[in-house]
Write a structure and sequence with these properties.
single chain, 280 residues, five-stranded antiparallel β-sheet, 6 helices, 10 strands, 45% helix, disordered C terminus
Length: 280
């Protein structure tokens, strides 16, 4: 394998570009990002890791604005993400200057994907170790979510999770729980529940942003986020308690039913013996 991962332009015999696989590995080692689309809102949640005591938390941002209507959250190498963010912001301003209109969300997603793909096809460069989620509203006023991979692919999603070793369980959870037409409160709860699959409980370990049409994105403060986390944990605990009670009830039903069956079999054997004995 070492012969084929020294240059980005060299394919391995099985058709892989190992440098792209390494870029995806950098994303898997990063913190988790969750995005959920509701009926009229988009909620983005990111995992926050502990920082040094003397470090300013304002300098660590995993959710940024690209334009007035475009929000980006990333998982991967922060330095690589910073370069992509600057390129995307410049493109947004160039588009506004040229077309005198705001670029669509899909246009920005396509631009970022094209930029990342360009860095997988030329010598002397390496892929960006970043996966991104774009969120905002389309021309029809409907919320939209796009995911862009290090390979240069981009897809539209209704709900998605990237980053972290356990992003697959989060995706499976979203697939089971997401439904069409979620309210803002339901989208918020679903995002928190998905994050709680991989992070410890508490507001210090997550950051939540709510995006509404025609408004500035809102970052939930610790008090508001703590209220949501407490409510979600109470619901999860209640669901566990109800499930345990149901299992106990079923177990009692099975245990309680066996003696009756045994008694009926004993009676049947006694009757058979009583009938047979006179003929002996």
């Amino acid at each position: 394998m070492s012969r084929y991962d020294r240059a980005i332009t060299v394919f391995s015999p099985d058709g892989k570009l190992f440098q792209i696989d390494y870029a995806f590995e950098a994303v898997r080692k990063a913190t988790a990002v969750v995005a959920v689309k509701g009926a009229d809102t988009v909620v983005i949640g990111v995992e926050r890791k502990a920082i040094a005591k003397l470090q300013d938390p304002r300098t660590i941002r995993k959710i940024v604005k690209l334009d007035a209507h475009v929000t980006l959250a990333f998982a991967g190498l922060t330095a690589d993400a910073r370069v992509l963010i600057e390129k995307a912001r410049t493109e947004c301003q160039s588009y506004r200057l040229t077309c005198e209109d705001a670029p669509s969300l899909e246009y920005i997603a396509r631009f970022i994907a094209r930029t990342q793909q360009r860095y997988t096809q030329r010598g002397g460069v390496r892929p960006f170790g970043v996966s991104s989620i774009l969120a905002g509203f389309g021309a029809d006023g409907q919320p939209q979510i796009y995911q862009i991979d290090p390979s240069g692919n981009y897809f539209a999603w209704k709900a998605n999770a990237i980053g972290g070793r356990n992003f697959k369980p989060m995706k499976e959870f979203l697939e089971k729980e997401w439904v069409e037409g979620l309210t803002e409160a339901e989208s918020l709860k679903l995002t928190v529940k998905a994050l709680l699959e991989v992070v410890d409980s508490g507001t210090k370990n997550m950051e939540i942003v709510v995006i509404r049409k025609g408004q500035q994105m809102e970052t939930l403060d610790d008090e508001a986020l703590g209220a949501v986390v407490t409510e979600v944990e109470a619901e999860m605990e209640e669901a566990k308690t109800g499930s345990a009670a149901e299992e106990m009830k079923e177990e009692r039903g099975r245990v309680g039913g066996e003696p009756e069956l045994a008694g009926s079999r004993a009676t049947l054997r006694y009757v058979q013996i009583a009938v047979v004995q006179p003929w002996a």
